[in-house]
Design goal:
alpha/beta, Rossmann fold, eight-stranded mixed beta sheet, six-stranded parallel beta sheet, 15 helices, elongated, binds cytidine-5'-triphosphate
């Protein structure tokens, strides 16, 4: 999970420095704070102005700058980072790191840092395969420096071979993996359905509902924050997509089911969507006119049940969770829904005297086969975090035999 992390990005000299700009943009889009050091070599390829504009932070360049040292001493710059990424890492920068040189701001910060370091080498293939560089790389990896790339490809110098810096999206993924490694849901995959479905009557009208999609969206986010790789299948709503959550935007129940089934196998499925139970049997291709013959009538047909289909699927996720909106006998109805749909847990809402749709708060009971847990009124974000915690406990309580069978 990159969001909220402090990344210190060191941009050393090389034509690949231009890719660092794309990397900064990706890190910012994913919610990271990015501080950048541009080495003397790096500044021959990209300007401090573009780095500052994209990172929305001052750019640091000079070890002996009184201004930089007053604002942010080099020790603080190194110590406040959750991860230091050197991209591109030139042969010279790698050699300085391997030998502990500290003759500029970048190398001094690297020596003073206790944060993990990732390097993304970029150089000519002969320089990369040179014994000196390979010895330096061995030294660094033995010190737990993470290596991202280089990859094989065409070089700016006209040669082809290993030495090309990894693409920004691959570096971003490596950074993501670095942070996810120790999270409790790392390596788990989750599918979340959310929002309403719109079932067309004609090209401009539909059967729908007022679901905002907020609860499912927050669940997707909470799972991702704990390291899960999340697919969100969401009906029409005004929520903005988040980069670290793979999102399929759909309209109808049938489209939702198709996307959900395409996401199998996965470890966790949470159906928070307010799926329309019915759709028009024959939606009209042209707009229905008022005409003279009075109000139109529609034949309706049942929509597929996404939750039930996933629960009874041959590739059934290990943990399937549904929602139930009830106005009376909340727990009894939730328990019978659990049986009807074949899921493992139900989050039951009492909607008898409150409007949950579109609200930021929710009051629910987690219903499992062996008991219930009431969660008083709280933000949907907080409900999502509690549910995620329950999921983490569920997986950590699994016996080794069960885990091996997954
Ligand atoms: N659900 C689904 N596909 C449907 C209908 C419902 O996946 N076609 C899921 C919802 O996402 C939710 C649960 O099933 O997790 C709710 O079930 P549903 O029977 O629709 O609940 P209620 O609307 O509470 O049911 P009822 O109308 O029977 O009270």
């Amino acid at each position: 999970m990159i969001q909220g992390r402090n990344i210190l990005l060191i941009i050393s000299g090389g034509i690949a420095a231009y890719k660092a700009l794309e990397l900064i943009r990706g890190l910012r889009k994913n919610g990271a704070q990015v501080r950048c050091i541009l080495t003397k070599g790096g500044s021959k390829f990209i300007t401090p102005l573009s780095v500052a504009a994209l990172s929305e932070q001052p750019v640091y360049a000079d070890l002996f700058s009184l201004k930089d040292e007053t604002e942010m001493g080099h020790i603080r710059l190194a110590r406040e980072a959750d991860l230091i990424v050197v991209a591109p890492a030139s042969a010279n920068m790698i050699a300085k790191m391997a030998h502990g040189l500290a003759d500029d701001l970048a190398s001094t910060c690297l020596l003073a840092a206790d944060a993990p370091v990732m390097i993304c080498p970029a150089m000519n293939p002969v320089m990369w395969t040179a014994d000196a560089t390979q010895d330096n790389i061995q030294k660094l990896t033995a010190r737990d420096v993470t290596l991202c790339g280089p990859v094989h490809g065409d070089m700016a110098c006209g040669e082809t071979g290993p030495g090309r810096m990894s693409e920004p999206e691959d570096i971003l993924q490596a950074i993501e993996n670095h942070f996810n490694m120790n999270l409790p849901l790392a390596g788990r995959t989750a599918l979340v359905t959310a929002g309403p479905t719109y079932e067309p009557l004609d090209p401009v009208r539909f059967i729908g509902n007022r679901s905002s999609g907020k609860q499912g969206f927050e669940i997707a986010r909470a799972l991702a924050h704990q390291g899960a790789s999340v697919k969100l299948v969401i009906g029409p709503n005004s929520l903005k997509s988040i980069d670290y959550i793979s999102t399929d935007r759909i309209e109808t129940a049938e489209e939702m089911l198709k996307c959900a089934e395409e996401s199998l196998p996965c470890d966790i499925a949470i159906c928070a969507a307010a799926v329309s139970d019915w759709r028009a049997a024959s939606p009209q291709n042209q707009k229905i006119k008022k005409g003279e013959s009075g109000p139109p009538s529609f034949d309706l047909t049942r929509n597929p049940d996404v939750l039930e289909t996933l629960s009874r699927h041959s590739k059934r996720p290990g943990l399937v969770i549904g929602f139930a909106a009830e106005t009376e006998n909340v727990i009894e109805n939730a328990i019978s829904k659990l049986d009807q749909k074949g899921c493992d847990w139900i989050i039951a809402n009492d909607v008898s005297d409150s409007a949950i749709f579109g609200e930021d708060q929710n009051e629910v009971t987690l219903v499992k086969k062996d008991g219930t847990e009431y969660w008083p009124k709280q933000s949907k974000e907080s409900v999502a975090r509690k549910l995620t915690q329950a999921i983490i406990e569920h997986f950590s309580n699994q016996t080794p035999a069960l885990r091996a069978a997954e």
